[in-house]
Known about the structure:
- This protein has a 22-stranded antiparallel β-barrel.
- Helices cover about 10% and strands about 50% of the residues.
- By secondary structure, the chain is mainly beta.
- It is globular and about 95 Å long.
- The longest helix has 24 residues, at about 5-25.
- A hairpin with a 2-residue loop joins β24 (about 420-445) and β25 (about 450-470).
- The protein folds into three domains: about 5-25 and about 145-550 and about 585-625 and about 680-850, TonB-dependent receptor, beta-barrel domain (Maltoporin, Chain A, Beta Barrel), CATH 2.40.170.20; about 35-125, Phage tail protein beta-alpha-beta fold, CATH 3.55.50.30; about 560-585 and about 630-680, no CATH class.
- It is found in: Cell outer membrane.
- Its main location: membrane.
- It comes from Asticcacaulis machinosus.
Amino acid sequence: xxxxxxxxxxxxxxxxxxxxxxxxxxxxxxxxxxxxxxxxxxxxxxxxxxxxxxxxxxxxxxxxxxxxxxxxxxxxxxxxxxxxxxxxxxxxxxxxxxxxxxxxxxxxxxxxxxxxxxxxxxxxxxxxxxxxxxxxxxxxxxxxxxxxxxxxxxxxxxxxxxxxxxxxxxxxxxxxxxxxxxxxxxxxxxxxxxxxxxxxxxxxxxxxxxxxxxxxxxxxxxxxxxxxxxxxxxxxxxxxxxxxxxxxxxxxxxxxxxxxxxxxxxxxxxxxxxxxxxxxxxxxxxxxxxxxxxxxxxxxxxxxxxxxxxxxxxxxxxxxxxxxxxxxxxxxxxxxxxxxxxxxxxxxxxxxxxxxxxxxxxxxxxxxxxxxxxxxxxxxxxxxxxxxxxxxxxxxxxxxxxxxxxxxxxxxxxxxxxxxxxxxxxxxxxxxxxxxxxxxxxxxxxxxxxxxxxxxxxxxxxxxxxxxxxxxxxxxxxxxxxxxxxxxxxxxxxxxxxxxxxxxxxxxxxxxxxxxxxxxxxxxxxxxxxxxxxxxxxxxxxxxxxxxxxxxxxxxxxxxxxxxxxxxxxxxxxxxxxxxxxxxxxxxxxxxxxxxxxxxxxxxxxxxxxxxxxxxxxxxxxxxxxxxxxxxxxxxxxxxxxxxxxxxxxxxxxxxxxxxxxxxxxxxxxxxxxxxxxxxxxxxxxxxxxxxxxxxxxxxxxxxxxxxxxxxxxxxxxxxxxxxxxxxxxxxxxxxxxxxxxxxxxxxxxxxxxxxxxxxxxxxxxxxxxxxxxxxxxxxxxxxxxxxxxxxxxxxxxxxxxxxxxxxxxxxxxxxxxxxxxxxxxxxxxxxxxxxxxxxxxxxxxxxxx
Length: 850
């Protein structure tokens, strides 16, 4: 067993031991004990009842006032535990517990009594935790929430599919289904079937991903956080802050922060089985999930075990790709298993401890045959990963609370490549460990209200290892950093519903300093303003700076040299061309300035509706990219001229060959320097500038129809992404071009929720694009698909009690992706970053709850 294997198994054993220890601790009889209190709450509206409950239970309670003020409750008299008393008060209402601390409880809105039983959270809930360290503050930054109800209505079986459907997110980057996408500037590729966020289309490594507020490690050599191992049944909601977040969260939060929040107050057992297939053939899938949880006055525990398997889709399975050798996989087959454990216990009235542990493993296969006569390549990749976070919460004094969190996270990618004549192996390992301490509470009181402060500091280690066939290709690098941050929430005007035009005004200021042992120190600020002229309208704005350290791969990856036929990369006539590719140790951190302006409106004259509009602008400096975003136009597009040397000298060619760790010849003929007509530079570089600006628009409304709820929603994003590779070059418009984020993307639909029957219809729309891989560029048609999900809860009799059946169909009308003209090395003529070859997919899910 290698050293890397031993270390991986040691850490895995430590995580599992910690899980087992906490499980034994929390399943002890003491966990179930609840201290009884006497409650005397008269009949009143729910807001008044909750206020009296808070006073009698000696707790702070936060809830959406407008949703409960008109709800009447019968009251409560007698001796109950605090949890039981609260559950009785909110029974048969749309409220649920969203967050719990030793001294406070936060309530959100559940979509229905049925949804409440499953732990669902309503998309209209105003309880937000991402975007601020100050407890119970509302961030000025735009935050998009995907609720449990949204997840179940989507019909998707994997968390990655839900993320890729978000209009704010680009489906390219590091994601399954990405095939022959040569947009090297944003790292399109599918190496391990990982799933990643790619907000605004600026790269999968430019979005910081959190699990319950804890960082996840990077995956493989593209250095993007992989979310595919997070079991979907355990997810309560996904919050996405679509604004730079380095002033609070540190590096990687350039395009935004995504926080995947798991269930905390699930009581019972849930078994789920899902079977699915595609109507064109291939791609069959099956998934099984076991979820069990228990929550009480002193603690909670949840475990989710998930197994999923998906079959391949080959080029022979689709008429659209029938001209390609049938051995090629369009969708890679995989097996995936995961274990998630979340535990918490209140040790004393002031001290509580919690633990989140995630372990996952994924086996993926791929087959590739570039031409009918070329060798068949077989790839097998095994990816185990874990993430463990231990948190201690302490009530200090008054409303001040402190938190200490320790996190250890790692993943390993072991790949084998086989041809009829060779066998090679590669291994990549990413890991991180950090410890962070923070505190938040009231700094001082002013006539306008309490000034809230959050402060914190931490230390983080990051590591990257690579092992390829041959001792010369082994590498182990690491870096460390220490950091500190502070956030201040300052009310400028005392909130008042009676003051029209000046209901509330609040300023937020934050800053973070990080000191790297490799790059030195960086300090980034952020300011935000929330202005509420009337209760129905909130205006908000932010300005801040962000930064991102270059990834290990961008700095230290192998120096490669490719030999192409000139015609394959935009040349005319015979001859070959050389193209460099690889790391650059001289890279410096990327920096950005971003600002947003937005409005949230809940007009009285459109009952039950909420509208949001946000303008965003990101100026990204020193962006690390590979300058040739479209290989097939490398010699034909004049924007690439600064990176092309025509008729290279023998000395230059000899230097390129000598510097290359590996040489790949895709020209179809033996390499001959006399036939080389050009050399192209495509290493990672700090580009001069990249600019992203656009609009996010969302709408939701609820209607009461025939004894049920009808919800309508719309989410759309309009983006313009430009890049200037060198100061003398013109701006390149990347958005709306092949293998880049579309100009606009929309997801809209209707959901009807009855007592037992829920029906959802969803429309996904991707705007038309330009195929810049041919000259002159031609249009690629828009792509629109319709999804539908029908869920029925069987009337409860005996063993059928708690049984739910769900049937979902994605791409209902079996739309093929729009055809492109750009030649690729398969060739496959569609943009796999903005459309899918899967076609119509049908899934049947059976769920049983106890």
